[in-house]
Write a structure and sequence with these properties.
With 111 residues, the chain is an alpha/beta fold. The chain contains four helices and four strands; from the N terminus they run βαβαβαβα. It starts with a strand and ends with a helix.
Length: 111
Amino acid sequence: NRNIYLSGPMKGYPESNYPAFRAAAMLLRQDGHRVYNPAEFPHRGEHATFPLRQAFAAYCAFICLEADTIVLLPGWEASKGVSAELALAKNCGLDVFEYGAFPFVAQEAAA
């Protein structure tokens, strides 16, 4: 099982793309993986008051200290946030997978 950081676009998406994050995290967890879902970062209040710096610090800590894999949700190519997370993940030596092409779950079970 893997420690996965789930990365994807949020800005400009309806509901900040949280439904896609939730659905992907649920499926990955059902496969037995530990998933850090940034859409679950604790925040009560308006989107304008979201503590972006504190959130990114938490995201980066998980990527650097706990994750072994980053999984990219569709649309990631145009996201500044994903670009930063992906660069950090690559520098930390994480495996990189696009969510739609996430073959290792079934392949590992068969191996």
